[in-house]
Amino acid sequence: MSGRNILQPDTLTYKSTVFDFDFHPTEDIIATGLITGHINCVRYNPGVGNNEEVWSVRPSKKSCRGLAFSHDGAGLFTVSKDGAIGALDVNTGSVLIKKPDAHDHPINTIKLLTENILATGDDGGTIKLWDVRTGSETMEYTEHDDFISGLDYDPTSKVMVASSGQGTISIYDIRKPKMLAMSANQDDELLSICIVKDTRKVVVGSQEGVLNIYSWGDWGDCTDRFIGHPNSIDTICKIDEDTVATGSSDGIIRIIDILPNKFQGIVGEHEDFPIECIKMSRDKTYLASCSHDETVRFWDVRYLTSEREEIEDDSEEAQEMTGDNQKDSDDEKEATEEQSGEMDVDSDDSDAPKKKNNRRPKKQAPAASNPGFFDDL
User: Fold this and answer.
1) How far apart are the first and last CA of the chain?
2) What CATH class is the domain 17-139?
């Protein structure tokens, strides 16, 4: 993973810990949330000194634990330690609305599931779904009794999966008021979760540094485990359906192939500081990470996807060449048979289906219009 021409944006450096960040869905913009309650919006550009701060605000004195851009990028949803949910205008940073006491406990995680549905999970184990058009709560799930550490979502089945500090994962059809399933307790805090393998597998990071792998629909217990991280796996980011990046409390970002399970290499590190979050940019050019070293760092990861694409292209080309060679052979055979007066017999052809424990639970396109969050309030 060395010897490449890598050009990435400068590191974003702050005066306090960055708990979370999110990439804008259509622009080269990143928003960061700090332990002080500050939220910053930066336009990032490759090269030294090319980042541009768009705005910096402090809508709450309580720590910002999570961020999520709206579907169109016009709004930025925020969650904080005081249990409040807010929405900011991405153009100006102004507060569009704040819903205090949205949760009874500090909110730890946030994820935009669909264009209109926002999910939040808190330190007490409660998960809530919100309709961003009206600001109304649509579902509340209370099966967990410890913090919700991570959420992921499959849009095809409309199923959400959640990891928790109590050592279990839970599964929900977001159209239904009751939980679908809960896994057996792993006797270990589960800190991160990610759907991979075209929704056939779910990988879950643990406090003990084990990647637990669940088969979709078989939620009773994990069906495979990847051992090798020396410290807790606090965050997971999907690179593609077969590969994930993991952020650990030892400060290292690793690339892991899933089934077959293989350690591929290290993308970067934050020295010995625990990593809070890692995410991919909208165009998959950069992997960004934030850590207790009060920075957000960018890592050029184009080689991770380009190499895989080259392998797939080479494989397809080889198959095409094999097919062409076979066709030439068949043509020659047919010509020979015609010359000898023999008739070719038809045959059936068929296509083969081919953190150390971060118990603080974690946490321009932009249009000028209000993203619609809590419009009715």
Assistant:
1) 51
2) mainly beta
Q: Distance of CA 253 to CAs 94, 212, 264, 265, 357, Å?
A: 34, 18, 11, 9, 17
pLDDT at 305: 77
Burial class (CB in 10 A: 0-12, 13-18, 19+), 143: middle
Residue 52: phi, psi to the nearest 5? -125, 125
Cα–Cα distance between 66 and 73 in angstroms, integer? 16
CA distance 147 to 150: 9
How many Cα neighbours within 13 Å face the side chain of 188?
20
H or E element that contains 329: helix 302-339
Domain boundaries, the chain: 17-139, 143-322+355-363
Each residue's pLDDT tens digit, 151-208:
999 999 999 999 999 999 999 999 999 999 999 999 999 999 999 999 999 999 999 9
The enclosing H or E element of 159 equals strand 159-164
Q: In CATH, what is the architecture of 143-322+355-363? A: 7 Propeller (2.130)
Same fold yes or no, 17-139 and 143-322+355-363: yes
The four Cα atoms 327, 332, 338, 343 give a dihedral, to 10 degrees, of -40
